[in-house]
Amino acid sequence: MEEDEGTEEQERFSHRQRLKAAVHYTVGCLCEDVASDKEVQFSKQTIAAISELTFRQCEHFAKDLEMFARHAKRSTINTEDVKLLARRSNSLGRQLEFSNFPELSSILPGGEAQ
Predict the structure, then answer these.
(1) How far apart are CA 36 and CA 31, in angstroms?
(2) I need a surface site. Which of 4, 30, 83, 103 has the fewest CB within 10 A?
């Protein structure tokens, strides 16, 4: 029994590390794009810090989405949960405002898709 729990915990840790590596890689690629467009440099420490902040924010969003679905007595997260999340997060709301998400237009400023 304890061995199964240890293996499961190790798998979760391994999965988390792979996700963190994927986020770090993606942030690095985005920083390279910005660096070439804007003629600036990003230090490795800066990329690592942005990666860690991004990962933590995604974890926070995931927990919020899970709580919203659970509160509605659902086991599946849907667009209604994302709408609630966007209302709680000003920065996410601004990002969605400039994206093409017509199903979320009712919560954006002006009430229409941009």
Answers:
(1) 9
(2) 4
Spatial distance between the Cα atoms of 83 and 102, rounded to a whole number of angstroms: 12
* Single pTM value for the model: 0.76
Contact in structure between 59 and 67 (CB atoms under 8 Å): no
Q: Indicate the SS3 state at residue 82.
A: helix
Q: Give the separation between CA 42 and CA 45, rounded to whole angstroms.
A: 8
- Structure-token match 């989405």, residue found: 65
- The contacts of residue 100 (CB under 8 Å, 6+ apart) are 113
Q: Which is nearest to 95 in space by CA: 34, 104, 24, 1?
A: 104
**Residue 86: closest CA among 76, 75, 77, 97:** 97
Which residues are CB-contacts of 46 (< 8 A; sequence separation ≥ 6)?
A: 31
Could you report the per-residue pLDDT of 33-90, keeping only the tens digit for each? 999 999 999 999 999 999 999 999 999 999 999 999 999 999 999 988 988 888 887 8
